[in-house]
Amino acid sequence: MFSRLSQLARHLSRPLPNYAHRSAAAFSSSTSRMTSSSNVETISGPQKGLIQTAGCLIIGDEVLGGKTVDTNSAYFAKFCFSLGVQLRRIEVIADDEDEIIEAARRMSKNYDFVVTSGGIGPTHDDITYQSIAKAFGLELRLHEPTMARMKKFSKPHKSQPNFSWDVPSPALTAKMRMAQLPTDPNVPDEQQVIHVKEDLWVPLAVVNGNIHILPGVPRLFEAMLEGYKPRLLPRLKDPEGKGMYRMLFSTPIAESQIADYLTQLAAKVGPKGVKVGSYPRWGKNRNAVTLVGNDREYMDSLEAEVAEGVQGKRVFVEGEDDTDDETDVKKDKDA
């Protein structure tokens, strides 16, 4: 569905309607509530509170059916990590209205920054816009500026030599579905529909203040996230966007042998917002231990202690201390 429509389909979601969104970083009453259309406070970019948590909703039968491999969630995970945003949940659901409605409401309530991927093309099974509109009691309206950009920047497929933007046809009706967006009449248009690139007609629509509807086509999904990044930076805990910090340790010790130490370490660093991870590397002589958090100075101060605790050393690339010497592995096999 996505590959054939990549040059047109895959609308992003709009900016921020003023629904009663209560996420972990809910707006302060002075900036997040809009008492009337005349006193909406204008802020550069979408109006929002601090972004600390994120959720990702992948929508598409083709993903669940194995026809398409989802790469967007992995890209979004790296994107969040680079910004210092904690990605708390990734879900893959079907092109089913009830499932989309339930998931959109729940994620909007639980996380500060939510993206959806897929289901915004011109075909009958692209129902993301209409489902998310219904989830928050909004209407679908034809967004004329988006329609104008579609006419300017998209070209009819070669199988449509007689297509006309001015003559009614089933093809035109299908294309217009991609410009029919969830609309809150109480929120300024520029906060509901954002075009992150000058030469791209696909809009980013934000619904309920934190649901961002993105296309499923990976190149569009990635480009639009990157284009939206400048608007996100002022809303991060670290506006400079330094991101999360990961320390990597290499250890020759079995996970079971260092499990007790790692349990104690996790309890110690947890209150500082640092998470401890342990990962076996099958077929290798060394396993990996990680510390992930935002407090770089504190984490760096733990380097000697952790290296001693796991009887290993800090590395900067997993496997950088691997060797071609498989003596230990051979000994295990001979035993």
How would you characterize this protein structure?
- The protein has 335 residues and is of the alpha/beta class.
- It has two domains: 3-235, Molybdenum Cofactor Biosythetic Enzyme, Chain A; 245-334, Alpha-Beta Plaits.
- 33% of the residues lie in helices and 18% in strands.
- It contains twelve helices and twelve strands.
- The strands form three sheets. It has a six-stranded mixed β-sheet with strand order 2-1-3-8-7-6, sandwiched between helices.
- The chain is elongated.
- GO terms for molecular function: FAD diphosphatase activity.
- This is MoaB/Mog domain-containing protein.
- InterPro entries: FLAD1_M, MoaB/Mog-like_dom_sf, MoaB/Mog_dom.
- Residues 318-327 have a biased composition (Acidic residues).
Instruction: Tell me about the largest β-sheet.
Output: 6 strands, mixed
Based on the coordinates given, report the CATH architecture of the largest domain. 3-Layer(aba) Sandwich
Instruction: Tell me, rounded to a whole number, the average pLDDT.
Output: 85
CATH topology of the largest domain: Molybdenum Cofactor Biosythetic Enzyme, Chain A
Sheet/helix structural class? alpha/beta
Give the total of domains: 2
Using only C-alpha atoms, the radius of gyration works out to 24 Å
- Could you state the CATH homologous superfamily of the largest domain? MoaB/Mog-like domain
